[in-house]
Amino acid sequence: MVCLGFKAPKSIDPKFFRAGEVFAEVKDEEKLESERYKEGLLKKFHAEGKLSQKAKAVGYEATGQLLYNTISATDFIKSDDPLGDVTKYNAVTFDSSEERFKTSPYTSMMTLATCEDLKQATRTDLKKLIQWQKKVRQEEAARAAL
């Protein structure tokens, strides 16, 4: 059943049937070039300190809340670094004064669900949330201009 749906080619190159060509060693020039390339990469990584240095251990941020951090919707929308906020906080909260964000035409039920728990959101959900943030930010800028 391995070949189910297999469409045979009209002709097969005869060199595939010669064991000498199939199992032939790679040319020495190609080997040397690939080894030089690998050595160059290793030297580059060592020079930049990526392989030789271990990351320093850091503790929790001194925010008062160690495990669960939230950000208000207004602060999230005004933020210049939404990706940083998504990684730093666990949830985006909506106060009664931020009801306009929930009723925005750009806000979906999926967006609200993502805001409830940012750590459980998928990469696609986070991309959509950042796009939502940009659209609502533009909407707020247009509202402020009026």
Please summarize what this structure is.
The chain is mainly alpha-helical. The chain contains seven helices and two strands, in the order ααβααβααα. The chain is elongated and about 75 Å long.
Low-confidence stretches: none
Please, what is the oligomeric state?
Answer: single chain
pLDDT averaged residue by residue? 79
Strand content: under 5%
What's the helical proportion of residues?
40-55%
Please outline the major beta sheet.
2 strands, parallel
Give Rg in angstroms: 28 Å
How are the strands ordered across the major sheet? 1-2
From the helix content, strand content and strand pairing, which structural class follows?
mainly alpha
Rough shape? elongated
Describe the structure.
The protein contains seven helices and two strands, in the order H-H-E-H-H-E-H-H-H. It is mainly α. It has a two-stranded parallel sheet. Helix 6 (about 110-115) crosses helix 7. The model has no long low-confidence stretch (mean pLDDT about 80).
